[in-house]
């Protein structure tokens, strides 16, 4: 009875050896690639903490087994080419993965399982790999340098694990890399110097780590970039003006870092941009009027910086904008009347600046506004009449200004101080 935990694996081993011998004796000299691959995968499965995983009941060894019809396995010419075990409730490590027994493997999708332990250096033996997705597990320790041997890799998703240390220099050898996701780990240190080699990147997700040092200036040469998420790190230095070359860029998230200097006016050349989020940095200088060229922008978050000067009237060109947040800066002057053209605007946050003058009547045209947060400025005169008509507005905050007559006080839960 007591021997059950030991007896089970040894039964598997005996069974495996028996099957392998059967294969060898029955088909001498013609052991097919797929039978070897089947044995290797079966052996790996038997190392799982849940080898009886109900999704993997097709993974059984029989005489002359081929794994090609097994759950999640696809073959080309009888050899395993693709392994898709995403979201399959596997509880295991990668230590016993048959890295040296699957020579034709090109696609590995093992996202969202309970893989723990390190990524073994033998990962580098999967030399034909094009696609590797190990996101959403519990992998820890450093990304092995051997990742650099995977020279054909186009997609690498290691996000959502507990990987630490810095991004290995060897990543620069992955010149075909198109989609790199290292987000939501514990990675630190600067981007390696070789990062500039990854010229074919379209998607770069490194958010929510502790990466430090500058944004690699070479990023401005990555002509195919479509989405850049570098937010929630410890990046410092300036935003490179060369980012303005990235005419395919649709998302640029750099928020919650330690970036300083001004917003380069070249950002206004990113005419494909849908979302620009630079909040919670240490950016200074004024908001470049060129941002008014970003006509596809729906989200512009520049709050919690030290931006000065006035709000450029050109922002009124951003007809698709639904979320404009400029709070907690040092902005002065009046709110441009052109903002009244932003007919899709739902969120207007100008809280805690040094804005003055009347709030333009034209803002009363913004009938989709849900929140208009104007508090802690030096606005004078009256509120726009339109704002008193209710609409969908749920939150109008104007306290700590110098607004005189507030006729529609009762519509909202205001806390108005008129000093
Ligand atoms: C793996 O399978 C899932 C679910 O069917 C699918 O969404 C995903 O695209 C597949 N991955 C690859 C690399 O084919
Ligand atoms: C990574 O984390 C492990 C513990 O999980 C620790 O032993 C190791 O020193 C860490 N490595 C780095 C480079 O921080
Ligand atoms: C670069 O990526 C694109 C897809 O974005 C792909 O079509 C092209 O073949 C890649 N080029 C190289 C040299 O990897
Ligand atoms: C990019 O922006 C800068 C500054 O706004 C401008 O001088 C330059 O002509 C623009 N370049 C291109 C290629 O549009
Ligand atoms: C703006 O968005 C529209 C609709 O998604 C798209 O057709 C158009 O190409 C975009 N413009 C630019 C300059 O990317
Ligand atoms: C922000 O910038 C100011 C002025 O350049 C500097 O004095 C300050 O130390 C910076 N703060 C942080 C947190 O980087
Ligand atoms: C934007 O607003 C200004 C001032 O309210 C107005 O003169 C201008 O015609 C508007 N532009 C567009 C494109 O609606
Ligand atoms: C916008 O508001 C102004 C002043 O309240 C008004 O004169 C104008 O007709 C409005 N424009 C539109 C397009 O509703
Ligand atoms: C209105 O917005 C202010 C500022 O963001 C916030 O503190 C307050 O909780 C909001 N009130 C409601 C009712 O949403
Ligand atoms: C066959 C093969 O390529 N084996 C290699 C697998 O990976 C380990 C660790 O990198 C190497 O030592 C082997 O040579």
UniProtKB/TrEMBL annotation:
Top-rank EC class of the record's enzyme: transferase
Q: Which residues form the signal peptide?
A: 1-33
**SMART domains, alphabetized:** LRR_TYP (SM00369)
Matching InterPro entries, A to Z?
Leu-rich_rpt (IPR001611), Leu-rich_rpt_typical-subtyp (IPR003591), LRR_dom_sf (IPR032675), LRR_N_plant-typ (IPR013210), PGIP (IPR051848)
Entries under Pfam families matching the protein? LRR_1 (PF00560), LRRNT_2 (PF08263)
One MF term in the entry's GO annotations: ATP binding
One GO cellular component term, please give it. Answer: plasma membrane
Q: Which reaction does it catalyse?
A: L-threonyl-[protein] + ATP = O-phospho-L-threonyl-[protein] + ADP + H(+); L-seryl-[protein] + ATP = O-phospho-L-seryl-[protein] + ADP + H(+)
Q: Which GO terms describe its biological process?
A: defense response; response to other organism
Family per record: Belongs to the polygalacturonase-inhibiting protein family.
What this protein is called in its record is non-specific serine/threonine protein kinase
Which organism was this protein described from? Answer: Cinchona calisaya
């Amino acid at each position: 009875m007591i021997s059950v935990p030991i007896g089970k694996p040894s039964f598997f081993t005996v069974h495996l050896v028996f099957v392998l011998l059967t294969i060898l004796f029955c088909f001498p000299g013609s052991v097919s690639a797929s039978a070897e691959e089947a044995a290797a995968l079966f052996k790996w499965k038997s190392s799982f903490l849940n080898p009886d995983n109900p999704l993997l009941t097709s993974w059984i060894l029989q005489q002359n087994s081929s794994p090609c019809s097994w759950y999640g396995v696809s073959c080309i010419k009888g050899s395993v080419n693709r392994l898709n075990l995403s979201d399959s409730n596997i509880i295991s490590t990668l230590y016993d993965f048959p890295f040296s027994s699957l020579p034709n493997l090109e696609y590995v999708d093992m996202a969202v399982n309970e893989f723990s332990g390190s990524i073994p250096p033998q990962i580098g033996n999967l030399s034909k790999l094009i696609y590797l997705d190990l996101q959403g597990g519990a992998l820890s320790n450093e990304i092995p340098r051997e990742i650099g041997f995977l020279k054909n890799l186009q997609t690498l998703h290691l996000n959502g694990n507990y990987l630490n240390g810095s991004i290995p220099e060897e990543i620069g050898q992955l010149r075909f890399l198109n989609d790199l996701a290292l987000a939501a780990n514990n990675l630190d240190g600067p981007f390696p110097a070789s990062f500039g080699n990854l010229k074919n990147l379209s998607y770069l997700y490194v958010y929510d780590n502790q990466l430090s040092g500058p944004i690699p200036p070479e990023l401005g040469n990555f002509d195919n970039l479509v989405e850049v998420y570098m937010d929630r790190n410890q990046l410092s230095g300036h935003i490179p003006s060369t980012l303005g070359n990235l005419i395919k860029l649709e998302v640029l998230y750099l928020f919650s870092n330690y970036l300083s200097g001004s917003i380069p006016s070249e950002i206004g050349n990113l005419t494909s941009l849908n979302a620009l989020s630079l909040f919670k940095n240490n950016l200074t200088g004024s908001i470049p009027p060129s941002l008014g060229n970003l006509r596809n922008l729906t989200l512009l978050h520049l709050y919690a910086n030290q931006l000065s000067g006035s709000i450029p009237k050109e922002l009124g060109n951003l007809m698709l904008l639904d979320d404009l947040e400029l709070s907690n800066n040092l902005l002065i002057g009046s709110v441009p009347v052109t903002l009244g053209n932003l007919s899709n605007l739902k969120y207007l946050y100008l809280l805690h600046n040094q804005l003055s003058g009347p709030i333009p009547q034209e803002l009363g045209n913004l009938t989709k506004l849900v929140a208009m947060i104007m508090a802690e400025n030096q606005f004078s005169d009256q509120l726009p009449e339109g704002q008193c008509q209710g609409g969908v507005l749920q939150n109008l905050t104007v306290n700590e200004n110098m607004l005189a007559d507030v006729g529609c006080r009762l519509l909202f839960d205001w806390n108005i101080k008129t000093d």
